[in-house]
Structure formats: structure tokens, C-alpha cells
Amino acid sequence: MSCKAHQAVTGTILIADDQAANRELLEELLTAEGFKVASVATGAAALEALAKNPIDLVLLDVMMPTLTGFAVCEKIKANPDTYLIPVVLITALSDKQDRIEGIKAGADDFLTRPVDRTELLARVRSLLTLKLRTDELERAESVLFALARSIEGKDPYTHGHCERLAEYSACLGEHLQLSEEQLIALRRAGVVHDVGKIAVPDKILLKPGRLTAEEWTLIKEHPAVGERICAPLKSFRFVLPIIRHHHEKFDGSGYPDGLRGEAIPVTARVLQVVDVYDALTTDRPYKKAFSVTDALQTMKEEVAKGWWDPHIFDQFERLVRSGASDFLSRGMAAGR
After folding, report:
1. For the segment 255-301, what is each residue's pLDDT rounded down to a tens digit?
2. 5, 6, 71, 319: which has the fewest Cβ within 10 Å?
């Protein structure tokens, strides 16, 4: 039995247009094809509908009063809860400047009035298919994050560690002026960097005493295991080097590959500095939390041994000392 691909595409579409006739026409075309449709007359109502309902695609009239389609699109794309929802701007104008403004606002596509039925349906189906794949990717990422947090949850002493690392490393990355994709990778890696510990038995992972040589060998495999777990996700391509190399040391004495100096990815060098700092400044079975001053002094001694990138540590120390209360509060709030 044959089945056309577009027949499987479904979703809820939000129409925002101040002209009732325009809304009714679009609604009629879309409902006839089996789509669920919600319609509103203002930009503000569109934002309210998005906050309250699961929407898969938005059709926005550009020339709405008060909040234009450009303004609404910009707000949708600036909101972490809605920025992945495709937005199509509809305009009676074919002016190049309108399209440029729409692109700046983050629009995913454009339609010109009078709307052609075939073009409308083709664009809607294409964007809904893309949204479906994006949703699948988000679910896969959520599973990984849940797995990482379940590992963290086994040890009461590491509660909030993942969220603090995500916040600390992104803050340091911003200070170092890393790219946006590197900052996103740092936030993700803060949560999933130790996901490979799923392969380490609890009796080793939670052992209070010194590890045997065999146990230590098993522990040292977790970065490579974590990399393999996350490798199928293409969206994690910038996260993988952090997962694999966050236990390397600047002098080459780390693991799993014994990388030295700048051969260690800069994002991994950032995460390892904040990882050490968080370990020092929180209670562990074998020690009480260090003060900020003592933690930084200990890390400075480790830099002298050749363990951590001296430039990144220097910038980290400056960041902490110049605004310690603000920096620490961001991390603590994230870890609650």
C-alpha cells in the first residue's frame, strides 16, 4: 500500500491576523487538510496563546496594529520555550526590506498575499516535518540529561553539581568571549560530562576509600564511554570533545588520551577548571567544603604542577574575585 509522505504530517497551527476574512480563509484551507487551527486577532493574543497551548507552527500577519508580525516573531524567537516553533510571516508586500526585517526577527519562511493554496500547504508541511524532527531531537537530549542527573542523584554529595557546572562554565566562557555554539556546548556538557559513569558499578562509584588499580582503570574509561553514548546526536558534536577530554591535564598526565596543552579543546579546559572548583567548594565524604580563598589557592598550586591551563585559571580567578558574590549566586541558584 502506498502512502504519500505529507499525509502523515499533522500539527496545531496558530494564525494571527487582525483581518477576520484573512483568518477565515487560512483556517478553511488548513482544516480541510486535517490540521488543527487556532486563530487570534492581535500579536498580544498570539503570544498569550503560545504561552498556554502546544503550538507547532505560527502564521503571522506582518501589518497587525500595536504588535506587528515582526515584533511578535522576535519575541517568539527570543523565548527559550518557543524559539524552535517555526514562524511564517505573511505580507501583502514583496518589498526586499520587509524580508530583511523578517529574517532579522528570526522568521523561518514568508508568504505573500494573495496566498496561494499549493504554496501555503507545501511550506506548512515542510516546516512541520522539520519541527517533528526537532521535537525528536529534544526528546533524545532530554533522555540524556535525565540519565546524567540520575547518575548524579546516586551521590547526595554531588547534588546540583551538573547545574552548577553548566552555569559556571557558561559564565567563564562568556568572560573568555567564546562563540555562542561553544557556550551552548558548555551548558550541555555541564550536565552530561559524566554520563559515561553509567558503566561504572555503584560500589566503585560511591566507594569512600582509595580505589584499587583495577577500579581506577575502570573509572578512567568513563569519558570515552560518555562520548560513545552521546555520539549519535549530531547536535552534540561540540559537546563530545568536552565529554571525552574534561579529565585531561595541561602537562599531558590526564586521561583518556594524555593530551597536552592547547591540544586539549578550550571548552574542555574551561569545564575542568570549574569542575575542580565546584568539587573543592562543596562538601564531599572525604572533606568539608573549602572557602573560596582556599579553593583558589589550591587550584593555583595545581596550576603550578602543570595540571590546568594557567591562562584560563587566571581569568577564572579574576572573574571570581572581581564579583565573587554574583558569580557564586548564579552557580548556587542553578544547583538548587
Report:
1. 999 999 999 999 999 999 999 999 999 887 667 889 999 999 999 99
2. 5
- CA-based nearest residue to 196, from 218, 166, 229: 229
**CA–CA distances in Å: residue 163 to residues 170, 193, 201:** 11, 11, 24
| CATH for 169 | 1.10.3210.10
Q: What is the pLDDT of residues 21-39, one digit of tens each?
A: 999 999 999 999 999 999 9
Query: Looking at the structure, do residues 178 and 58 belong to the same domain, yes or no?
Result: no
| 242 close to 217: Cβ distance less than 8 angstroms | no
Name 209's Cβ contacts closer than 8 Å, sequence gap at least 6. Answer: none
In this structure, the answer to whether residues 278 and 209 fall within a common structural domain is: yes
Dihedral sign, Cα of residue 280, residue 282, residue 284, residue 290 = positive
Cell of 163: 547545574
| Number of structural domains found in the chain | 2
Q: Which residues of 20-59 are buried (b: 16+ CB within 10 A; e: fewer)?
A: eebbebbbebbeeeebebbbbbbbebbbebbeeeebbbbb
Q: Which of 104, 116, 112, 43 is nearest to 77 (CA)?
A: 104
Same domain? For 103 and 171 the reply is no
DSSP state of 257: S
Torsion of CA 209, 214, 220, 222, to 10 degrees: -90
**Could you tell me if 24 and 71 lie in one domain?**
yes
What are the φ and ψ backbone dihedral angles of 68, each rounded to 5 degrees? -70, 170
Q: Do 49 and 72 touch, CB atoms closer than 8 A?
A: no
Q: Kindly report the length of the chain.
A: 336
